Amino acid sequence: MADMNRERHRTRETAFYLFTQQSLPACKPVLTPGWVITIFLFMGLIFIPVGLITLRASHSVVEIVDRYDTECVPEAFRIDKISYIQDDSIPKNCSRFMKVHKYMKAPIYIYYQLDNYYQNHRRYVKSRSDKQLLHGQKYHDTSSCQPVELNSGQPIVPCGLIAWSLFNDSFTFIRERAELKVNRKNIAWKSDRDHKFGKNVHPFNFQNGTLIGGGKLNPKIPLSDQEDLIVWMRTSALPSFRKLYGRIEEDLDADDVIVVNLMNNYNTYSFGGKKKLVLSTSSWLGGKNDFLGHACVIIGSSSLILAIVFTLLHLKYRRPHGDTSYLPWNRKSLSG
Amino acid sequence: MAKGRIRAKLRKSHLYTFCLYQGPNGKGQQTVGGPGFSRIVHCNGPQLQSERPFKYRSNDISTTKYSFITFLPKALYEQFNRVANLYFLGCAIASVTPLSPFSALSMIAPLAFVVGLSMAKEALEDWKRFMQDMEVNSRKVKVHTGEGAFGKKAWEKVQVGDVVRVEKDQFFPADLLLLSSNYEDGICYVETMNLDGETNLKAKRALEVTLDLDEDEDFKNFKGIIKCEDPNPSLYTFVGNLEYNDQVYALDPSQILLRDSKLRNTAYIYGVAIFTGPDSKVMMNSTNSPSKRSRIEKKMDYIIYVLFSVLLVISLISSFGFAVEIKYSMPEWWFLQPQEADDFYNPEEPVTSGISHMVTALMLYGYLLPISLYVSIEVVKVLQATFINQDIHMYDEETGIPAQARTSNLNEELGQVDTILSDKTGTLTCNQMDFLKCSIAGTAYGSSTNAVELAAAKQMANDLEGKVELDAVVSYSEKDRQSPIKGFNFEDSRLMNGNWLKEAKVEDIILFFRILAVCHTAIPELNEDTGSYTYEAESPDEGAFLVAAREFGFEFFQRTQSSVFVREKYTASGKPIDREYKILNVLEFTSKRKRMTVIIKDEDGQILLMCKGADSIIFDRLSKDGRFYQPDTTKHLNEYGEAGLRTLALAYKKLEESEYSAWNTEFQKAKTSIGADRDIMLENAAEMMEKDLILIGATAVEDKLQKGVPKCIDKLAQAGLKLWVLTGDKMETAINIGFSCSLLRQGMKQICIPAIDSDVKEEVKGAILKQINNGSEMIKAEKDPHAAFALIIDGKTLSYALEDDIKQHFLDLGVRCASVICCRVSPKQKALVTRLVKLGTGKTTLAIGDGANDVGMIQEADIGVGISGVEGMQAVMASDFSVAQFRFLERLLVVHGHWCYKRIAQMICYFFYKNIAFGLTLFYFEAFTGFSGQSIYNDWYMLLFNVVLTALPVISLGVLEQDVSSEVCLEFPAIYQQGPRNLFFDWYRILGWMANGLLASLIIFILNIVIFYNQAFRAGGQTADMAALGATMFTCIIWSVNIQIALTMSHFTWIQHTTIWGSIAAWYLFLFVYGALPPSISADAYKLLVEALAPAPMYWTATLLVAITCNLPYMTHIAYQRCFEPMDHHIIQEIKYYRKDVEDQHMWTKERSKARQKTKIGFTARVEAKIRQIRAMMNKKH
């Protein structure tokens, strides 16, 4: 036992000595032409298949997009869309037809897409109170919610610009006169529902002020079940974004025509934002985006090309590895 | 004590004719008491000095930068003197306002950490200095405490006016007025090596009136008043007078003992402290050690400026964009409630918003300027310094002293040195003279190995055989000639052990040895332990002669007032005989006379003149008959000279009684005369006697080089470094050393600019300029590529050459010469030459020295290196690095310097790369948020990015990277040139790295936002929000920068592996742990990894794609560069990688022999020159 300890001690001492003398055993890889070509080849061989697989996944996704912001404003109001949307007395319902061009397998995700909408603006992002969302009125310090913090002296739950500007267009889908069942549960992140939005926190004093922003909330339903709000409050990274609205849990066949009855409530007209409705299936990778696949294929092929170029260069201008004639004192230009 | 008494009977002045003469001294005395001469010292009355105006500064010295009180403000000031830190301070202050895009903590914490760490380092270094001061201040000296009693006191307690007793081999604690010594005539010997580097002892002499004060009790009632000049830095002047017993006596520099010089060959002295502590001359000479910064660090400032400009530009763009958005878009963005907006978002006032946004932007993009850069560099440098301190190859086993990096600021500067300025004594040489060879009566004795010729012959033989054996060639003349006797290194059995009795010219040999034993001014001292005698001589040469005479059997064992006693061991009878030689006259050595003569009467009544001196001087004074041995001796002297030995010729003549007495009357007359022409008269008298001499032989004494010096100089020369030797010694000695160090060689054209005797300044200057121009012309006209020039210049001339109008010419000449030797230079001149080289060439200079006289140059040079292990610590204290021996300089520069330079250069480049890659993504994203200053990353990611997530790999790069191993660095010194040529930190490279960073940031940002554009990114159909996209982008950054550093490194120990892969793992770990914390803490990162990212294949695919794409350009670049435009280290790495060095030994040695810079100095160059010479001769014959 003592021997082993001493042994271990000695090894440790030697290791430390080697460290201080900077002579620890080390691997010193050298980028020899062989390695260079191998690495490039290897990268090509990885990326091209990966790219093709992701492309395939992306192609398998069927997506239908319908822009409705302009179409859903009656002809008469198209000159002044803002007064139309701000006038509560005008009915906002609207019908759209969407044609399924390819078989869509359930679940079919329903997204609404907004453009030119700066959900990532600093003033906007900051204007929320996570603690209030979780603890409700028990939590008093909501100064971060400026400017939507209080209304007539009463706290607003949920406070802040994000909640206040809640998206409130609504959609119903009819196929062959039968309403398609839209599942609006479980559209938000599970962690948000379970841990970030209070189960006992109910909307209070919400949209009661002079300025009405977006949608209203049912004060009877706790925040943790207000999934539209939860989805909305995951602020998007870019000014153009989609958010999940619900799922159609039936397959749609090619050439099905779907009637969408929507309430066009939300004001994007002030800032010229577009509104789109998107139906999309999903693959194992997610939604439809060819870019990832293309990028992989491009990088993979560039690597392959580089591998070939290096091979050719080497065949032509071969420099024997470790050839001493390249040492500076052997080169004429320098030794001169 | 008893011994001292016996010796005190000697009147040393008997031995001295020329110096120490005290003529009437009126000059300067009238000024005493006037302005600038106000100091009044009450001898033996320190209590009188306690009140103004006589209260002078105390004797404690302080070289620390800070005191307890000033530390905080001063150190903080130093810290915020750095541009980057000041900027971060501004950010930290602004971060408490609502303008801040981050939480205040994330701005203040890193700054506090960085500044705190740097300050702690400063404090530690200052503490060390403080401890060293403490050591000096608490040295003990005997001080008169009253009533004739002396007690020990710490140096710092010594006051002006104190009478102190300093004993042999002690340092003087303050500038003292010498009152008396153990010698009757008040002479004492002082070693001033610490002041001016001269090794010869200097004699000081007390005033006659104070000679009686040579007992402790005598000071009971001693009173006196010294009125003298105010403290000043001039070492060689002193004006003052002493009022003693109601009389006024003039004082001059020969009574002044300076602090930091050492009492030698004298048992004790008494003195009065005149200047103490900071007032003392040596302290007045010391300048505050300047804080030095390396070239890389200075350049880094410019990079910071560049980045700061970039920062300003993008902040301006951002603010402008913001103002435009505020004015035109904001009113339409109802979801932001523009009508309720406060000042920052008020559409009515876009200008105000824009300006306040500027502050936000400056903080947001602060990641372009790496806050942790300074602290990382500091950590790296401290670790590098630890490696230097720990290096076993720079550890001197004899003294047990390791190399030490005293400041860690300059590690990388070691890799860029262009010129080395070296002191001689104590640095190149040991300050020990060894008797090595002699030529007696035309026969050379002593082992005669000429290393150069041997090596040349060997290499030529090898060349003929067609193979090169470098190791054999460069077997420096370093065989262990360790002799057990100090000062004697003679090997020749013909003379040893009395064998000379069998030699042919035995009479001459006896005479030769007698001259050695008799012609000197030394005093023998019996070493009671060994029973043999040691000698206290003025110069080490003389000591070496006496030791040699002793070893040959002529032991000088006693000196009385009038006689010298020599015990002759080997006689015809076989019994030792004691012989007495009556000393009639001594004409001692001065630098002007360059000879020494004694006139003696031996036991037979024969009067003999014995003379030793410089060969040229002696040869001029030979009689016709005395030239018999001259041709042979001259030949030997030349050989000795080329080997760098110090030579003296020995001669004698026999005198008739009448002849002598006639001369002696003349001489005595001259001696007793008073007046200005006394010196001339004495000299004339001496001249009369020292003629018609008979040459008997010559001696060769080796100024012993320190171990490994020639080899080290050779390697340094091969590494392309220039070496200038600056020495306080005289020209002859300096040239000797030049030869023994291979700085000079036969056939090298020496441009000598000796001192010019003229009082007219213009004339002197003109003459110097002419000589300099002649030298330059000569070099220009030279066609032979192998021709080498050496510049040797005297200190006096140098003082003119350093004046503004000539110095550029001087420098130009010096730079073109292969070696430069400056002789008799003062400490000030050393510093001036250093400054001239430093500023004139604009290249990095390194000064190395051991004594206090080198302090100026050590401080002035870009890097100062001190030789540790000698008694005075001043040089080491002032230095940036200290090594125990000169030879360690090779490893310090060629290995550590090279490594540190590349490490720091690569590390800084990488640092900027990674911060640009990261910081710019913030900017791009901001452009997508309406320039509102929103960051896509969680505050914590950003906080941890520099401090934790990417800190360790870059530190491991900075500490452990090795392009080639230390052995290869030493074998291929030419690789060192990468540093002085600055191949790794030029703008091309820096901008290249920045461009790489820019490219990486673009790739990371664009790929990510397109990949996560707006479609579902995971099962469940959810789209990516800001948190998910931010975390993904951050993951890509972490991967990219870590792969990048892995590509940069070429040396992976387990530490590098751990730090790189550990950093990546740490990011995931952090994201996991942070996400597991309750949402009130983790906010948008709550369960991000577990719930959203990890299960999403898109996240992993994107990471892979982005990380590889970012590094593809760099990878292609290095692959191309290595394949088609390889650098030195690439090839060597490859040779090592393929183990070609093992398989093909021949090639390896051949390359090694070629891997030298073209050099004209050093042993190897000398061997080559010799080979050329031999070849030329052979060609002639054919």
Automatic annotation (TrEMBL), chain A:
Transmembrane residue ranges: 34-55, 291-313
Alphabetized UniProt keyword annotations: Membrane, Transmembrane, Transmembrane helix
Signal peptide: none
InterPro entries reported in the protein's UniProt record: CDC50/LEM3_fam
Intracellular or extracellular location(s): Membrane
One Pfam assignment: CDC50
Major place of residence: membrane
Family assignment from sequence similarity: Belongs to the CDC50/LEM3 family.
Protein name, entry field: ALA-interacting subunit
Lineage: Eukaryota, Viridiplantae, Streptophyta, Embryophyta, Tracheophyta
UniProtKB/TrEMBL annotation, chain B:
Enzyme Commission code: 7.6.2.1
Name of the protein: Phospholipid-transporting ATPase
A family per Pfam: PhoLip_ATPase_N
P-type ATPase N-terminal domain residues: 41-108
Record keywords: ATP-binding, Magnesium, Membrane, Metal-binding, Nucleotide-binding, Translocase, Transmembrane, Transmembrane helix
Family: Belongs to the cation transport ATPase (P-type) (TC 3.A.3) family. Type IV subfamily.
PANTHER family (alphabetical): PHOSPHOLIPID-TRANSPORTING ATPASE, PROBABLE PHOSPHOLIPID-TRANSPORTING ATPASE
Taxonomy, superkingdom: Eukaryota
Subcellular localization, as worded in the UniProt entry: Membrane
Enzyme class: translocase
Topology term for the membrane: Multi-pass membrane protein
